[in-house]
């Protein structure tokens, strides 16, 4: 018997042509999936860019202005939230305490100090998506505003955030997972000059978790 002959050039060309659509489809799939994944990552983490960070507090002054970049505009559109204008105020968010430990709904915290000048400010607890815990039937104080807060003779305040009710300034916190604190300043010069002036923000100190 004659020895088996190798594939002809025509056969090899046919096989290559069959592989080409598969390789093109694979390349397009990788490109599209990679592009979508990178875009989603950028949108999920856009608030980390150009952030104004003071201790554990972070704010994004450009997010709600005409200076917002395309990613920030896409983030705003996806979130669907009504944000404060530059002349209206500035919202600060804290996801860690002053020692860098993540905020937990099972712990107790003291928020103490002063805030930048503002006509009014509010402080509330929320989940990591910024959603409040309060419901229509919830009578516990989940937030405080500057007109209700008791202060010392120097104008500083001390707010306890915990599960157990406390005298004085108290915000109820009883949640199984991570939380964040949202401090919103209304009608404040800090909104338009956040990068130009030195801002004083309150500290966040953890004083225990669970029964400890």
- Order of SSEs, N→C? HEEHEEEEEEEHE
Going by CATH, what is the homologous superfamily of the largest domain? Domain of unknown function DUF1214, C-terminal domain
Proportion of β residues?
Answer: 15-25%
Total number of strands:
10
Low-pLDDT regions: none
The residue fraction in helices comes out at: 10-25%
Which fold name fills CATH's third level, the topology of the largest domain? Jelly Rolls
Please write the CATH class name of the largest domain. Mainly Beta
Give the class from helix and strand content and strand pairing. Answer: alpha+beta
Order of the strands making up the biggest sheet: 1-2-3-9-5-6
Q: What's the helix count? A: 3
Any overview of this molecule?
- The chain is of the alpha+beta class and 212 residues long.
- The protein folds into 2 domains: 9-44; 51-207, Jelly Rolls (Sandwich).
- It is built from 3 helices and 10 strands; from the N terminus they run H-E-E-H-E-E-E-E-E-E-E-H-E.
- It has helices spanning 9-44, 70-79, 190-193, and strands spanning 52-54, 57-59, 89-94, 107-113, 120-126, 143-145, 157-162, 170-172, 180-186, 203-209.
- The strands form 2 sheets. A 6-stranded antiparallel β-sheet has the order 1-2-3-9-5-6, with no helix packed on it. Strands 8-7-4-10 form a 4-stranded mixed β-sheet, with no helix packed on it.
- Strand 1 and strand 2 (57-59) form a beta hairpin.
- The chain is elongated and about 85 Å long.
- The N and C termini lie far apart (88 Å).
- The model has no long low-confidence stretch (mean pLDDT 76).
């Amino acid at each position: 018997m004659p020895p088996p002959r190798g594939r002809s050039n025509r056969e090899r060309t046919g096989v290559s042509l069959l592989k080409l659509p598969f390789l093109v489809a694979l390349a397009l799939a990788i490109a599209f999936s990679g592009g979508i994944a990178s875009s989603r990552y950028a949108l999920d983490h856009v608030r980390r860019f150009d952030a104004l960070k003071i201790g554990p507090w972070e704010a994004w002054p450009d997010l709600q202005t005409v200076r917002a970049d395309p990613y920030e505009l896409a983030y705003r559109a996806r979130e669907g939230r009504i944000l404060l204008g530059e002349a209206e105020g500035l919202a600060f968010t804290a996801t860690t305490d002053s020692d860098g430990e993540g905020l937990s709904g099972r712990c107790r915290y003291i928020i103490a100090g002063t805030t930048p000048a503002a006509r009014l400010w509010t402080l509330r607890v929320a989940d990591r998506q910024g959603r409040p815990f309060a419901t229509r039937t919830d009578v516990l104080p989940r937030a405080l505003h500057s007109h209700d807060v008791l202060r010392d003779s120097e104008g500083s305040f001390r707010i306890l955030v915990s599960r157990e009710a406390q005298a004085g300034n108290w915000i109820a916190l009883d949640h199984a997972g991570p939380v964040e604190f949202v401090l919103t300043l209304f009608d404040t010069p800090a909104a338009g000059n956040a990068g130009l002036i030195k801002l004083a923000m309150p500290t966040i100190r953890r004083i225990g978790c669970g029964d400890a």
